[in-house]
Amino acid sequence: MPPLQVARSANIAFQRSYLPIALFIGATSGIGQATAEAFARATKGNAHIIICGRNRIAGEATIAQFPKPTSSDAIHEFIECDVSLMKNVQHITDSLISRLPKLNYLLVSQGIFTMRGSDRTSEDMERKLALHYYSRWKFIHDLAPLLKKATDSGEDAKVMSVYAPGLGGKVIWDDLGLKNNFSAATAGLVAPAYNDMMIESFAEQYPGVSFIHATPGAVRTNLLRPTSFAGHLLKNIVTGLVYPFSLSSEESGEYMLWSLLHSKSGAVRSNSHGDEMTGLEKWGGSEEDRRRLWEHTEAEIQRALETSASSE
Ligand SMILES: *[C@@H]1O[C@H](CO)[C@@H](O)[C@H](O)[C@H]1NC(C)=O
């Protein structure tokens, strides 16, 4: 485990021969914001950094704090977007695909600290699943060609989903979208499992790219070491929702960035200190599980987009 100082110095020593392009989704607060800030410090602002979130004021304030770049190619931009709607995600990815030459780093952390109750979006998706899973899958899926362009030129291509590796519960295979079986507890159990399977599926399709499922470590004190099913449920829910009290968000951002920059290619699960967690491979599901989830995801996102289109 890298001590904080080591992570921080490694991040600050970041150097690439090219101007990196990094996209941070859900970066107007919490861990997404902290990691974007750490990246801006690491690159001394000399990067194309795009942050995306719902809160324009917070987004612009975050960018205003970034170190001023010396490279004239550096760009810092904010995209305002509610990514709980697949229509909005599509709009952003279409635009990025048409204007970016490549993508080196993609962090998806939307929704992680949301305490909003459950409801369904106007596209009839369960809102937490839309944020914690479907929109993340869609960003990665749609932008994968840009990641591939980066690896094709020998550059870094790394994707991180910040959620809860290894903390998935039982998947309800005949109701993956939780249309009939929703409870906050169930949503908190399936979304980590979906993320774990998601990184495996993408890693299979895009060799050379890192797909990291990282925990910000909300509950790493083991105060909630689960000994019962209820305890397991509680831990999953708390892990998914609670702000990491025991590390400042600045510290978490340094660890997340360290893991983002240093993880090997393939599917990686990393802990709150940026280390790879071992023994969690089984959480990636069987080949059949991953195929079922993938097919459901494609169909469900398509259905959501059609719902949006028909209401326009
Ligand atoms: C899901 O909901 C359906 C309909 O209410 C119910 O019959 C089924 O038992 C539920 N499945 C699980 C795994 O809870």
Overall form: globular
- Structural class assignment: alpha/beta
Please compute the radius of gyration using only Cα atoms: 18 Å
Q: Major sheet: order of its strands?
A: 3-2-1-4-5-6-7
CATH superfamily: NAD(P)-binding Rossmann-like Domain
Listed once per kind, the bound small molecules are: 2-acetamido-2-deoxy-beta-D-glucopyranose
Number of helices: 9
Tell me which CATH architecture applies here: 3-Layer(aba) Sandwich
Beta strand count: 7
Major beta sheet summary = 7 strands, parallel
- Low-pLDDT stretches are 219-226
- Proportion of residues in helical segments: 40-55%
**How many structural domains are formed by the residues?**
1
Highest-level CATH class:
Alpha Beta
Could you state the order of secondary-structure elements as H and E? HEHEHEHEHEHEHHEH
- The CATH topology assignment is Rossmann fold
Which percent band covers the strand fraction? 5-15%
Mean pLDDT: 89
Whole-Å distance between the termini?
Answer: 51 Å
